[in-house]
Amino acid sequence: MGEPPATAFVTGGAGLVGTPVVEMLLARGTLVTALARSDAAAAALRAAGAQVVRGDLSAPGPWARSAGEADVVIHAGLPRMAPPVRGRHVRRLARLAAEQAAGLADAAQGGVIVAVTCGLADDAGPLRIAIPSRSAEDALRGPETRVVRVPWVYGPAGVVRDMSRGVQMRRLRIVGPGTNPMPLVGARDAADGVLAAAAASAGTYAVREPSVPTQIALVHHLCAGRGAPRPDHAPPRLAALSMGGVMSEALAAFPVDSGAPPPGFACAQRWDADLLDALVPVASA
User: What strands lie across the sheet with 203-206, from one edge to the other?
Assistant: First the structure.
């Protein structure tokens, strides 16, 4: 990997992938300025050692100058998608993601941008859960843009973390037969892929573990680690009533395996060995 950037501007720096991105940049001597929308995010970022600028990508603010002055802009702060996720939510989030990304691209003034996006797609194209990410990618396109597409990311937040909570609370059900593959990547590996992409040529990359569990294998792994019974199955249409059709569709999908990682990148984490330790323990209900 090349020399780390002297300065970086990070959105979503208190999030699942953004947190290790900030930590890794700081450990390499990069001066990090991070955008924070909440008091909690600002406090966490300052505690990590980053400089903080308050604001929101949806509105002009002092963050634009920080983005324009940075050697690299890392966009890990796409609009949040929390269940239940339905089609109308996707359309709204896609518009918001595009607007925010366009504003960030304008502020970056043609500099290096690395965007972390959802890489879940099938033969027909991106799954609905990935449409906001694709909207952001389109708005960020440029000669210095790197896109890092990730599948299901495991760590102290996110969908896999929620699945672990559901196992412990005896509320999780496998969506459909469960034989579909669920490509994974650890949050720290995803962050490492982001930094590798920043040092690589502009383009679109994919970061994921080579070993891919099925949905049922992942759930049973969580059950074994949490000492919980294996759950039953729910038809996708029934699961959609509680989590929304977009999330139900994604959990039962057979995603296409495509895209190459950034040069020199290799996953250090393994879901079958490291996933449980990567999740924050949850007290029993």
Answer: 51-54, 31-36, 7-11, 72-75, 112-118, 145-150, 203-206
Q: For residue 48, count CB atoms less than 10 angstroms from its CB and return exposed for 0-12, middle for 13-18, buried for 19 or more.
A: middle
Q: Are strands 72-75 and 7-11 parallel, antiparallel or unpaired?
A: parallel
Query: In the prediction, which pLDDT does 257 show?
Result: 80
- Quick one: average pLDDT of 174-191? 98
- We report the CATH number of the domain holding residue 17 as 3.40.50.720
Q: What is the extent of the structural domain holding 78?
A: 7-278
Count of the separate structural domains present in the chain: 1
For 252-278, what is each residue's pLDDT tens digit? 999 998 799 999 999 999 999 999 999
**Residues facing 204 on adjacent strands:** 147
Using pLDDT thresholds of 50, 70 and 90, give the confidence band for residue 85. Answer: confident
Residue found by looking up tokens 């001066």 in the block: 31
